[in-house]
Specification:
By secondary structure, the protein is of the alpha/beta class. It folds into two domains: about 230 residues, no CATH class; about 100 residues, no CATH class. The chain is built from twelve helices and five strands. Helix 1 packs across helix 8 and helix 3 runs antiparallel to helix 7. The longest helix is centred in the middle third of the chain and has 31 residues.
Length: about 325
């Protein structure tokens, strides 16, 4: 155990001294901050209404006292505007009721803010003349969140797990360049202990990235036990990525080339899962990254997915283990240890 621990410490020392590896280590955290800053979310939204132009001018004037107002010609235009990534409430008249429309992914406090404004606007104390009786109806256009935020979150968490394998792969390449890996032939640390140390490095780095990115993007609204399990179920796939890079990259430049190839695999499958029809997704079933994507979607988008969390997690682990066994065999032949 001490030998494995020493190898893990060495890996983190190498990663901290290498500028490129240090940047990659914080990759997920950096991009989570970027997404948080530049992609509008309901938590950071301003109070804004889109209102049907048939609504009483007096009501519109009162609402303008509380927030921004944009007039639109049709209910369809209002629904389309509300469903964009920023936080906007729609207001239209329907069946002699004022209908306040939301996207469906807003936090309760924001909905209450819009409700409070409308209750003030139609209060008898306010100087508003409305000929017909006015009632407020609240509804959501959809019971799901913004597809852009969902997509970015799923892709970022998948990439965060990948970063663990990437860092471990870079340390294997460093071991090859410094001839450390050749010393395994006469070292008391055998090849299996060596791979376990890389497995642990990938797991720790991946956990740091997934937990950090989840905290930045989701705060306390996500099940962190399942976030940890995402990394655990993905671990065999991730360490397979590490030893693939370690086997076929002769130096850091070669590792960067393989990073582009393997990185795209981790990103393109989550993207395809959003845009490819379910009946065509069967072609993605052999890929561990597909099952990882289904697992992540269950955690961050709710349980109403094609496959549940536990089945997706089990499939991720099983398919990742098969991939690991194939790549490990190639690794031993390539490195000759």
């Amino acid at each position: 155990m001490g030998k494995i621990t020493n190898m893990i410490k060495k890996d983190f020392t190498v990663a901290s001294r290498d500028r490129m590896m240090a940047i990659v280590f914080f990759y997920s955290i950096i991009f989570a901050f970027v997404i948080r800053m530049f992609v509008p979310t309901v938590e950071g939204a301003r109070v804004e209404f889109v209102i049907h132009e048939d609504i009483s001018e007096e009501i519109i004037m009162q609402i303008e006292e509380f927030g921004e107002v944009t007039l639109l010609e049709s209910a369809e235009d209002i629904y389309e505007r509300v469903q964009r990534v920023d936080s906007v409430a729609g207001l239209l008249m329907k069946d002699e009721k004022l209908e306040l429309v939301f996207e469906g992914n807003e936090p309760e406090w924001l909905i209450e803010t819009f409700k409070t404004i409308m209750n003030e606007v139609i209060s008898p104390a306010m100087p508003i003349s409305v000929v017909m009786p006015v009632y407020i109806d609240y509804r959501a256009t959809e019971e799901k969140g913004s597809i852009i935020m969902d997509l970015l979150t799923v892709v970022l968490v998948a990439v965060a797990t990948y970063v663990g394998g990437l860092i471990a792969g870079f340390t294997i390449v460093d071991d090859k360049e410094t001839k450390t890996i050749r010393a395994l032939v006469v070292s008391p640390l055998n090849v299996y202990q060596y791979i376990i140390s890389k497995y642990a490095t990938a797991l720790f780095v991946g956990l740091f990235g997934t937990l950090g990115a989840s905290a930045i993007l989701m705060g306390a609204s996500v099940d962190y036990v399942k976030v940890i399990l995402v990394m655990v179920f993905s671990s065999t796939m991730v360490v397979a990525t590490a030893i693939f890079i370690g086997a076929y990259a002769e130096n850091q430049m070669g590792a960067l080339v393989l990073q582009k190839v393997t990185g795209w695999i981790y990103m393109i499958v989550p993207i395809l899962s959003f845009f490819v029809g379910e009946k065509w997704q069967v072609v993605l079933y052999p890929l561990p990254t597909y099952w990882q994507t289904m697992m992540i979607r269950n955690v961050f988008m709710g349980g109403d997915q094609k496959f549940d969390f536990w089945f997706s997690g089990a499939m991720t682990f099983v398919s990742g283990t098969l991939l690991f066994l194939i790549v490990f065999s190639a690794f031993r032949k390539k490195v000759r240890i």
